Backbone:
């Protein structure tokens, strides 16, 4: 005689992971399928109360995700309007659900999603670059802290630039765009928006490279100076100060230096590792 061996009862940890997966599942039906295999877990009520509770939690989670996305992309939300932004958030939620419980880390795929929507790109082709810049600001806000080192600037006068590199503020990144992304963001960050200025720059075909960094605890963005993006990117790629200056022929380092220190973009100077290229 063969006895039916009961399936092992899932652990609380497995159940919690399953529940989290159900909350982030793209459809309610998919969420129910995930839970149906664990209806006999300890403390799990397989009655209709569970399904109603799941629906309520999923609805709350989706609404919270939309609010979280709006906090990361305030200018994009304003450009699109509430209804269109909510629809975009819902699409991102469905196609790229969160991979972790902290929604502050969810939403980085939005610029790419925008680029995959032809009608939206045709109507407002700058949206993806605006979104990319806003996400860079969002990431800068949560980047690891770094303290300035004022004493290190003496190295500029005593060490060969070939042996030096620069330390930039947390979250520093340059984003090249065909569009006036910084102007668009500045114009829509005020109330009422400065639509005339933004429209003028768009009509003139102005292209801007956004420079993002964190000043103390405040994310910042401005238009990069001529050659600045090449200079910063070269240093971040491991080039020496001398090499970065050679790459950025249009860059005025002497004029840039003091404002960069004052604005918290430049935190210090360091001697390069002897093994560096």
Residues:
């Amino acid at each position: 005689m063969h006895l039916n061996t009961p399936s092992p009862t899932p652990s609380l940890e497995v159940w919690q992971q399953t529940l989290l997966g159900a909350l982030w599942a793209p459809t309610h039906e998919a969420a129910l399928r995930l839970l149906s295999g664990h209806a006999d877990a300890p403390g799990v009520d397989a009655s209709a109360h569970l399904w109603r509770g799941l629906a309520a939690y999923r609805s709350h989670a989706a609404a919270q995700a939309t609010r979280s996305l709006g906090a990361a992309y305030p200018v994009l939300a304003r450009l699109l309007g509430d209804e269109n932004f909510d629809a975009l958030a819902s699409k991102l939620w469905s196609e790229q659900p969160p991979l972790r419980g902290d929604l502050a880390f969810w939403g980085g795929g939005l610029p790419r999603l925008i680029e995959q929507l032809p009608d939206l790109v045709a109507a407002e082709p700058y949206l993806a670059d605006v979104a990319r810049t806003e996400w860079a600001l969002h990431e800068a806000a949560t980047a690891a802290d770094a303290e300035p080192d004022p004493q290190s600037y003496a190295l500029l006068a005593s060490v060969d630039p070939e042996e030096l590199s620069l330390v930039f503020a947390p979250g520093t990144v340059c984003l090249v765009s065909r569009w006036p992304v910084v102007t668009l963001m500045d114009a829509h960050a005020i109330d009422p928006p400065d639509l005339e200025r933004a429209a003028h720059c768009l009509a003139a075909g102005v292209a801007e490279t956004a420079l993002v960094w964190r000043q103390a605890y405040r994310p910042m963005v401005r238009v990069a100076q001529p050659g600045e993006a090449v200079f910063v990117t070269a240093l971040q790629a491991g080039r020496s100060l001398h090499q970065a200056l050679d790459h950025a022929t249009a860059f005025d380092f002497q004029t840039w230096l003091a404002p960069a220190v004052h604005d918290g973009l430049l935190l210090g100077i360091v001697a390069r590792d002897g093994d560096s290229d």
Residues 145-277 form one domain. Confidence is low (pLDDT under 50) at residues 1-9, 40-47.
